[in-house]
Amino acid sequence: MDKRFYTFIIAPHATARLRKFRVPRFVVIGTLITSFIGIISIVVMTSTYVRMVTKTFDYNAIRNQKEALQVENMNLQLATTQLNEKFAMIEALAKKLSVTSGLDRQALKPNAGGVGGLNEPTSQMLNLNSAKQDPSVLELQLRRLDQYYLEKTNQMAAMPNLWPVQGYITGGFGLREDPLGEGGEFHAGVDISTRYGNKVLAPSDGLVIFAEPREGYGNVIVIDHGFGITTRYGHLSAFNVKEGQRVHRGDVIGFVGSTGRSTGAHLHYEIRLHDNPVNPKRYMKG
Description:
With about 290 residues, the chain is of the alpha+beta class. The protein has helices at about 25-100, 130-135, 135-160, and strands at about 5-10, 20-25, 170, 175, 185, 190-195, 200, 205-215, 220-225, 230-240, 245, 250-255, 265-275, 275-280. It has three domains: about 5-65; about 100-160, no CATH class; about 170-280, Glucose Permease (Domain IIA) (Distorted Sandwich).
């Protein structure tokens, strides 16, 4: 037997004629080696391709993540810049409010006593240095300042500093001779002489708590302005408001008359603080 060749027999089917092929040994061995090398190469190439594809996906994912982080960082920087601008604006506004309110920083210091008779909402310090570190501190302090301005606004609205009627003061506040000749008396307000029927105005915002005749006063209106302040208007000829009605500065509440203990047309005007009469001249402007 010649070992230099391999004989291959092919039988197409059971009855067909057999076919033989002789292939040199070196060809068969070369083909096997080439096939083995080809298979190994395919496996290596496939593995390399898979790793390359995987790396490409990883690279794309990392690149997308990097771009997202860059966008997020830009947005964060923009938000930080806007926040700093808002803090600067609020800080400037707070400083301006503190100055215009006439309060120094110590007068607004937390847990400190009031200065100049200021009440609790105004005895809080606007500590801007702490606010920079904690925005909630700034919010709390601005709320306190807002409360202070709200209270001061209400106090100003309640202050009866408008003349209730145009005229001349003919009867002052304090001890005086009774104009009806019945000896001395304490006059709890001022008498403003003016024409009969002239309009009587509310000197500030308030609530009408009394509007009817009363002995001595005649037709009288009492307005509660809050903060313990009340005003009285006596000897009216007629009312223009009723009990329970809220009035504002300058509203017409009644008309000058001479009802009650009166010698002629005038307005008896009182200001009371916690029901204690005070001199209206302290509040009346002009």
